[in-house]
Amino acid sequence: MNYLVGNYKGLLLFFILLYSSQNHLVAQENTAPKKAFFEHVRYGGSLGANFSNGYFSAFLAPKAIYDFNRYTSAGVGVAASYTSTSRYSAFTTGASILGLFRPLQALQLSAEFEEQYVSRDFKLEGQNLDDTYWYPALYLGLGYTTGHVTVGVRYDILYDDEKSIYSNALMPFVSVFF
C-alpha cells in the first residue's frame, strides 16, 4: 500500500510541475508583443511608360501583399493601362489576386489572376470600330529578387490573341515592394 501511495505522490508531483511549467510558458507567450497585421503587409507594384514613333503606352499597377512567413505571401492589386497609336487606342482597368512563393531568398515564383475591363477603338480606313469586354488572365511567373526589387518574366496561360491587349503571352516585369 505504501508503494502505491508513494507512486501516486510522485505522479501527482509530476503533473503539478507539468501544469505549472505549461502555465508559465503560456503566460510568457501571452505577454510577448505580437506583430500587428499591417506589419506583415508590403506595398508596391509596377508602373511604366513607352514612347516611340506614333506609339504611347502607360500602365500603373499598385499592389499590397501580406507575408505569411519568409516563403509565402498573398495579395491584391488594381491595374490601369492606356495604349495609343495612330489607328488604335485601348484603355483597361481591373483587379487581381496573387500568390508568391520564395523557395530561395532570391527566387520568386508567382501566380496572379487578373480580370480586366477592356475598351478598344480601332480606326480603319474611315471606320471606327469600338469593342468593350472583360478579359481574364492567369499569369505564372518567375523572378529574381534583390532587396525591394523583383525582375522576371510571367506567362498568361489564358492568353487569347484576339482579345488580349498584349502582343503575346510572355511578358517581362519589374516590381518594387516596401
Can you walk through the features of this model?
This is Alpha-ketoglutarate decarboxylase. The longest helix has 30 residues. The protein has an eight-stranded antiparallel β-barrel with strand order 1-2-3-4-5-6-7-8. It folds into two domains: 34 residues; 141 residues, Beta Barrel (Porin), CATH 2.40.160. The chain is α+β, with helices and mostly antiparallel strands. It is built from one helix and eight strands, in the order H-E-E-E-E-E-E-E-E.
Main features:
Alpha-ketoglutarate decarboxylase; 2 domains; disordered N terminus; 178 residues; Porin; 1 helix; 8-stranded antiparallel beta barrel; alpha+beta
Report the strand count: 8
Order of helices and strands: HEEEEEEEE
User: How many helical stretches?
Assistant: 1
What separation lies between the terminal Cα atoms? 70 Å
Secondary structure layout:
Layout: H1 2-31, E1 41-52, E2 55-67, E3 72-84, E4 88-104, E5 107-124, E6 127-146, E7 149-156, E8 170-177
Antiparallel strand pairs: 1-2, 1-8, 2-3, 3-4, 4-5, 5-6, 6-7, 7-8
Summarize the structure.
The chain has 178 residues and is an alpha+beta fold.
